[in-house]
Design a protein that fits this description.
By secondary structure, the chain is α/β, with parallel strands linked by helices. Helix content is 34%, strand content 23%. The protein has six helices and eight strands. It has a six-stranded parallel β-sheet, with helices on both faces. Helix 4 links the parallel strand 6 and strand 7. The radius of gyration is 15 Å and the shape is globular. The model has no long low-confidence stretch (mean pLDDT 88).
Length: 151
């Protein structure tokens, strides 16, 4: 089971690679009973201002996840700025203990800041990143992405 929030499609694309049971956070936030049970539960969302979007935070705050393996994937286009560590801190403040948090470098689609033609021409090795993450999650690997010096 993977919950996703997407603004431009990057996070939806990543979520589709992770699990066939995909649930939109924008829809699930309206569920009456927000208790979810699965062997693996994930959250996939973009990085907004070095953090998870407010809607994702709100969803985490009002939901209960019954799983032995909780993971978070954060998509970004230029710099994630330590978003994984901030996501970990936020989740843990709610009593959620992610086993795995990783970032996926994708096309930056913040239109005021980046040229989409240039972004499409860059090889950010998205498929390679996703394959590695799929393997990690299948093996229930524990991992929290570190802040990189250039981020």
């Amino acid at each position: 089971m993977v919950f996703y929030f997407t603004a431009t499609g990057n996070s939806l694309y990543a979520a589709k690679q992770m699990d066939d049971n995909r649930i939109s956070i924008a829809q699930a936030i309206h569920d009456q009973k927000k208790i979810y049970t699965a062997d693996r539960i994930g959250i996939v969302c973009p990085v907004f201002g070095h953090e998870m979007p407010e809607l994702v935070k709100d969803f985490l705050k009002v939901s209960r996840f019954e799983t032995d393996y909780f993971y978070i994937l954060l998509t970004y286009g230029n710099r994630h700025g330590g978003a994984a560590e901030l996501a970990k801190e936020y989740a843990e403040s709610l009593g959620i203990h992610p086993a795995y948090i990783n970032v996926i470098l994708m096309a930056d689609n913040f239109l005021p800041g980046f040229d989409m033609e240039e972004q499409k021409a860059l090889d950010k090795k998205v498929e390679e990143q996703i394959r590695r993450i799929q393997t990690d999650i299948a093996q229930k690997k524990s991992y929290i992405s570190p802040v990189m010096e250039n981020d």
